[in-house]
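Before the break, one more example. Copy the sequence into your notebook; we will annotate it together after we see the structure.
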Amino acid sequence: MFGRPAVVTAVRDAIADARRAGTGAAAEAVADSARWRLQAQSVPSLRSVFNLTGTVLHTNLGRALLAEAAIEAATEAMRSAVALEFDLGSGKRGERDDHLRGLLCELTGAEDATIVNNNAAAILLVLNTLARGREAVVSRGELIEIGGAFRMPDIMARAGAKLVEIGTTNRTHLKDYVAAIGPKTGLLLKVHTSNYRIEGFTKEVPARDLAAVARERNVPLVNDLGSGTLVDLTRFGLKHEPTVAEAVSDGADLVTFSGDKLLGGPQAGFIVGRKDLLAQINRNPMKRALRVDKIRMAALEATLKLYRDPDRLAERLPTIRLLARPRAEIETLAARIAPLLATRLGDAYQVERIACNSQIGSGALPLEAVPSAGIAIKPSASRGQGRALSALATALRSLPVPVIGHVAEGSLVLDLRCLEDEAGFVVNLASLDVAEGQDAGA
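Here is what the structure looks like once it is written out:
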């Protein structure tokens, strides 16, 4: 089952541990220890979890859940040889981007499109192609930092572009861009501040106005939308987020955006816009290093095709379905789950149904709160509450399918917006042992 080399190593390690502990290398104890090691090693590191954090697109939990159509397409691509770079019509070598280019142009109104492995790669490739050894002009208020200490100035430096900051943190005017454009300007960069908002005495230049200046001075305008969406989110009860089609219509020469955030697909980065600029980008040797494989290509194609039928998008695309899920439905779910949790936890914890707010996550609409419902679990004893909460969180993470919530105001909160497998969750709870979790957290 485990293979002879792994078994031999586990037995040797078990014997060594027994000798260090001074307990003696009894055959039965060594066998049990070796078996435990082998079983622990066989558990996948990348495990499924129940995301009850209240963040729908949680970066640390893999962001978007894929649509069934995308899963089926990716599975088929894994099982079979596919015409990834082969033109079935001519029998000659083809381009892998061709599988998505038509769909992206159709959905965004752009002239051309290309695909890389994430949006950071898209920005890196654009800057390296159009502004290497030249200047990239950007507002100070848009010099973002996202998760993992990824900073826009750093990516500019790696791309070989010289950063030209204009305006101030809270106010940038059109005249600032005009004054910064010169013979060394490679591009103007507008960055969507998707993971924060500056409020109060503020000013930014609309993309449409910036595009007019860029055309007049013959300098490309690149609009980095970050999360990016292909549909107006207001139809699902969410705040409007600029769509890619709107960014193209506003006159951006290139638009970059992600595939695994609001779009609801696998990790990818898209660059859409002018055909001549895309031709330059595709000739950049870096493009090969940043391309996506057949599995993601298949999943992306299936995901994009869902956008051809926006009326059924909420029922077919998990990201939109979860974001649009009615609060009343989640409240009803909480009413069923709370008594089961209370029974399982006993008198040591108080279980209460609560109203809460979910977040979209991954930098998308950071101030948008989506009304939700969940369960708050608080230790009954007044002393040692922090230790008790830690023990509970540890016990939930130790379940066959780990349950991930968040601590707020002295309670462990389980936001149920993303809980769709109620039956699986209930079966999972049968293994909950808070005493064992307390031992692990001690």
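The first strand starts at residue 50 and ends at 51. Residues 68-316 form a domain with the Aspartate Aminotransferase; domain 2 fold (CATH 3.40.640.10). Try to locate both features in your own notes.
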